[in-house]
Amino acid sequence: MELSFIQDENAVEMIDGMTYEFPYTMHERDLSNYIVPWHWHEELEFDYAYKGSIIIETIHKAYTIHQGEAYFINTNVMNTKRKAKETSVAVEHAHLFHPILLSGHYRSIFETKYLNPILKNQSIEVIIIRENTKSGKEFLEILHSLTRLGQAEDSEFEIRSLLSRAWMVLVQEIEGQRQRGLFQALYLHERTKSILSYIHRHYSEKITISDMAAHVGVSTKECIRSFKNAFHQTPMDYLISYRMEQAKRFLKETDETITDIAFLTGFHDSAYFSKTFKKYLGMTPKEFRKIHKKY
User: How confident is residue 63, by pLDDT bands cut at 50, 70 and 90?
Assistant: First the structure.
């Protein structure tokens, strides 16, 4: 299943294919011409770089995942994904599941003994897993088995069993990386998460740095400083890039006019929208739609 990216007003991803009855899904995501916007979710990710190299960026660090490597993304870790510059294609196999699939119920021994030590450890956000360790090799083999199951019917027990085994192997891999000194102390930036959520909720409106700063109760200078420290760009630069990503989606997936798309993405001047779009994408909105429109 190809992953369609949907998020709520707080930048929490709503994962396509995830159900209450069986909270697991496997997606193939093509990042060759797509940047996953900043987001987070409760679900866990066991992912595999199937083709090319992928950049996973959190508010603390950027991770490069090369073809043939796997990676784990912890619960509620704010991240964005994109194709690495040195590669022409980037495709990942993403196995996403809610922790309850392994824990069974609240405060079970599976949750308290095996899951929480990782889920509640803020120093663990992204773990890259390679074949150069025994645990890494086993983890990759499990992911390949999960992918082969695909959409096979009556495979729920087998999938849960494989995910449980993968979790225990992940625990071994994390301990091995810890012993090799690959961890650093990390902490969450709730303020910057709040600014990010504000941008995602109000990008279609005329918003300013002052609006963002007032939302989190700081000065405009502090708003810019904290956001730039986390995301390596100013809030306004991020706002424009996010508007561009939404504009690309509207151009590809809807029949809205370019003028209407300009207004839907916060540009109240269609000429300025087209000029900005060409600056960022190297082509006009009309040219982009002609190449990428889904029929």
Answer: very high
Task: Give the Cα separation of 62 and 221 in Å (integer).
Answer: 25
- CATH classification number, 5-179, choose in 2.60.120.280, 3.50.50.60, 2.30.30.60, 1.10.357.10: 2.60.120.280
Task: Inform me whether the pLDDT recorded for 264 exceeds 90.
Answer: yes
User: Percent of the chain, pLDDT > 90?
Assistant: 64
Distance CA 222, CA 189 (A): 13
What was the pLDDT predicted at 186?
41
Cβ atoms < 10 Å from Cβ of 198: 21
- Mean pLDDT, the chain, rounded, equals 88
Within the chain, strands assigned E span 5-7, 13-15, 24-30, 36-39, 44-51, 54-58, 62-65, 70-73, 79-83, 91-97, 126-129
Give the C-alpha separation, 256 to 14, whole Å. 24
Of the candidates 194, 189, 190, 191, which has an alpha carbon nearest to the alpha carbon of residue 10?
Answer: 194
Name the residue ranges covered by the structural domains of the chain.
5-179, 190-292
Sheet holding 36-39, edge to edge: 36-39, 79-83, 54-58, 62-65
Q: For domain 190-292, give its CATH number from 3.10.290.10, 3.30.750.80, 1.10.10.60, 3.30.530.20.
A: 1.10.10.60
- Number of Cβ within 10 Å of residue 88's Cβ equals 8
Q: What is the model's pTM?
A: 0.66
Q: In terms of Cα–Cα distance, which of 142, 119, 116, 115 is closest to 129?
A: 142
- Residue 50 has which token pair? 């199937």
Contact between residue 285 and residue 252 where contact means Cβ atoms under 8 Å apart: no
